[in-house]
TrEMBL record:
It comes from Arcobacter defluvii. One of its GO terms (molecular function) is DNA binding. Keywords: ATP-binding, Helicase, Hydrolase, Nucleotide-binding. Residues 137-276 form the Helicase ATP-binding domain. PROSITE patterns: HELICASE_ATP_BIND_1. It holds the Pfam family ResIII. Coiled coil: none annotated. This is DEAD/DEAH box helicase. InterPro entries: Helicase/UvrB_N, Helicase_ATP-bd, Helicase_C-like, P-loop_NTPase.
Amino acid sequence: MNQAEKTNLTNLGKNQKFNDVMEKLTKNIQLTEEEKTYVLTIALIFLRYYDNDKKFTTYIEFAYYIILKYSIQYQDYKPLYDFSTEFGFFPITKNILLNKLLDNLSIKDILIDSEIDFYNYKDQYIQTIEQFDIHKNLLEENFQDIAFIAPTSYGKSSIIVDFIKKYNTDDIKIGVIVPSKSLLIQTFNLLKKEDLEKRLLLHDEMYDNDKSFIAIFTQERALRLLKKKDVYFDILFIDEAHNLFKKDSRSILLSRLIKRNLQSKSDSKIIYLSPLVQEINNLKVGNTQVINEQRIHFNIKEPEIFEYLTNGNIRQYNRFTGQFYEVGNSSNYLEYINNNSLTKNFLYLKRPKMVEQLANTLADNLPEIKGIQSLINILNENVHEEFYISKLLTKGVIYIHGKLPDIIKEYLEYKFKTITSLKYIVANTVILEGINLPIDNMFILNVHELSEKDLTNLIGRINRLDTIFTSNSNNLYKLLPKVHFVNTDEYGRKNGKMQTSIEKLRSKIFKDKIQNPTLESFDFDELDKKIEKAKKEKDKESAIKMKERIIELVANENYLYQKSITEFDKLKKYFIENELNTFYKNFDSTIEKISLKIQNINLSEWQQKRLLDKIYSIFIEGIENDISKYEFKRLEFEPTRNYYSVYIDRSHQNTLKENINHLFEYFKKRIKEKNSEFYFGESYGEIPKSTSSYTGYSKPVYVDLAKYKDDSNKLINLAIVKLQMEDNFISYKLNKFVEMMYDYKLITDEEYNLHIYGTEKPKNINLIKFGLSSSLISKLDADEQLGNLYIDDYGNLRCNNLFENFLENIDDFYKFQIEKYISKGFVNE
């Protein structure tokens, strides 16, 4: 919404008749016949304004909103039919005809029905005119770099598939870069179904000098492949490309991947995919890039926004008029949620602890449901009898967050998708990184650190288009998805309304916030402006430190592209490349100390050390005060290293439940030994703790387990989240140092494989690289099934008929873990 549109709509809102009619339409209050004519006339006027000047896109959105609301409220679909046919919203036109929502069909309507079939994409769905034209343009033109900007569920997957098919030559090397491991297998299965006759790689170590392949990677795996092998990507798909704008380390890695690939192959194609980029030139990593924009401007979903206030009042927001309309009240927020729930409801909170708290509170106020006991039994058997969610399931509630073990999170998402009686999912933004869920209603209980774009992305998850148009029923009401902002004292900011965040949604045009200093569009002058604007001394100091950190980061990035002359240069580059430099405060001086340590290793003593003691010897001992990451610094203590040595060994072989029980017993042992303060990080920490070498650490990152010595239920659930925390620490922090020692030949193949994979067997290692967990492979080995599995020449995991029979006789949780990677259509007869 540009300023002229905003001003005109605001001025129009001063007209009392317009205001009254728009309030009634917004609130679904019955209009008189005269008011119906009036409001449809308003829509026609705005359509004419748009016809005269196409830059007034908000006018057509407003006209569409009026017509959509009117048609659904009064079940008079002729205005919506005419609008959709005229403006190319063909899925709506087809749905109206398919469900016989018009009173009388003319010959013209029959012809329109036939013509719309031209926009049918592979008998899967009807495209809008924008979708069709952009899809056609992308496949016919030969652009080098492309940005496909479209709302969620507007055909991103089909773009990837069709683009790959267009360029599917015998020597093409394609990378599909996704932001999370959760999306790896989802994208892999999408491409596997297309039978592209290409090697599909899920891990950089699956690469075997392939002449041609399709790699479904995270940016970390893609960079490792480029660094270790003399290879490049001819085509790079960057999924969720708006992540490039963020200030975190993964955004730096993503821009580094693009830049490095362009260095190796300057004419490689890059396809950026996102619903949230406003200015495509902000995606550039170099000033020579020319990115062609392909944008879908119109979203045929228009959310209805409600706000529950802490005083019990409820109001509805109309983003076009900018008005809040009173619509009722509720005695408390739980009553409000219950009264406004639909079939599948998503409740958003940021912090994992709050997610669990809300899920439990919500469940306490809901009736029990039936038909869920088999799922509870499976979770009791495979996770634990005292897992919080087992109790919540009886009320149709689940929760997920990033501190749940991945396999539990993925299984619960799958069950929420497939079991109708599971009505509520409470989660944080981790929901954006998993499978697409059938959400038809959203309650937002906290907007802390949610930008306008984050909110838009969340809201886009409600009523995906495939849930509206792929069924033979009238689901057009889902084009008006309901979003509820729920203010509470428990979960929101004290005395804080969400009105400011809601009002920011008035416009669908949100400025890109460029926080990644390795992008061309990053504004370095803004750093100086922040320093100048700072009035308080502490704010000025903070701004100065921020500038220093960014300058250092950019200097390190530039250093990577300089020619290495000495071994020290190579070591320094390695640290920067693998983010090991971020573990230390004074990197330049610290890297010199580490370099000397490596040169002075006493081999006879070195070979006798455990792997974790080797990490301590090189990367911690004597430089403790230079370490910036406290979680890693804890390895200076021998008991901590002992704990992780045992934990890593057990976690490879044990089942999930065995690992939970072992950690539970370890908690009880610590309580008994009067050593009950246990590190949990900021997400779950309850108390700060000072040590002899690290005093004054004020953030609550420890939990005193003794506080829960008589509450086994609490300890079990702390053990469950701690498992994921430990796996994250090992995978994303500790293993960086293991990789470094392996690359520098400081540890043997045996040490490396046993630590990373828990085995030395080549077949088991290959299956782990494919994505199967080491504990799952151990279980399959115990069931004598590994011989019935193999990976074919195209990277597909295949099985024989014996394995098919085996799958029919195992429990659902076990089967789910396997079928993520193998489908019944791939059978070796």
